[in-house]
Amino acid sequence: MIAWLAAGAPFPPVESARTSPNGLLAASRDLDADQLADAYGRGIFPWYSSGEPVLWWSPNPRMVLVPGELHVSHSLRKRLRAAHRSTDEQIVVDRDFAAVMRACAAPRGDSDGTWITPEVQHAYVDLHRRGNAHSVEVRRGDELLGGLYGVAFGRMFYGESMFTRAVDRSKIALVSLVQILLHEGVAMIDCQQATSHLKSLGARPIGRKVFCAHVAQATKLQPIDWSSWSGRALNYLLEGF
Question: What's residue 109's pLDDT?
Fold first, then answer.
């Protein structure tokens, strides 16, 4: 059995999460920005399918990417150099967060559905309005070519989802995010669960206890001023690749 969270009820300790399926901690009926903020501060995230209760997770181990350990392949380096020189495409922050979420929620060839339901989109857009969720976008004018979104508290960043409509544009967005976080002194990006794609980019597992201890410390640090990164093209961040 897992805990059922009534409205306003606290999360159970992450140590009580199930081992199978790995990290399943609790369930609730609704999802809102207040609950998300509380969850992320405790090393917990939601993940569920349409028609299910909201399921809350804290897996052990936890997949993370240390910004300085990002692996960039030779072929990706070529695209990064082209993006750095491009006058046609721009890398921007928070131009249209809601559009990035909709793009991440769109059907993909390898999946029949998405966990990014309208309810999820509403809650994260609310978190974005509060200054705690952000997008990195690759654009050609008004056209979104690729991007990602995630959650930020203090100097902790939690990656959520990414999408691409042109080759490697999601990876270009990720590299740009990593450059921002390196500049801001962020030591860890939460990747939640292990995938071969994340491993190929340099992500690795760490124990939940270590992860949650880092979250407790990093979320108390001075928040990133994301407004200093928005409103301008960030292609220059890719210089040197």
Answer: 64
Distances, alpha carbon 91 to alpha carbons 70, 86, 139, 230, in Å: 19, 10, 6, 10
Amino acid at 223: P
What's the pLDDT at 7? 83
Write out the residue range of the structural domain in which residue 157 sits.
Answer: 63-238
Using CA atoms, how far apart are residues 208 and 55, in angstroms rounded to an integer? 18
We report the CATH number of the domain holding residue 22 as 3.30.70.3550
- Is residue 139 located within the same domain as residue 163? yes
The number of beta carbons lying within 10 Å of the beta carbon of residue 51 is 7
**Distance (Å, whole) CA 84 – CA 236:** 6
Proportion of the chain in helix, strand, coil states, percent, rounded to 5: 35, 25, 40
**Last residue within a domain, chosen from 40, 59, 78:** 59
pLDDT of residue 4: 96
**DSSP class per residue in 59-97:** -SSEEEE-GGG----HHHHHHHHHHHH-SS-EEEESS-H
The whole-number mean pLDDT for each consecutive block of 10 residues of the chain, a chain of 241 residues, reads: 90 97 96 97 95 95 97 97 97 98 86 80 98 98 97 98 96 98 98 89 97 98 98 97 94
Same domain, 151 and 205: yes
CB-based burial of residue 174 (10 Å sphere; 0-12 exposed, 13-18 middle, 19+ buried)?
buried
Q: Which residue in this structure is represented by tokens 């559905």?
A: 113
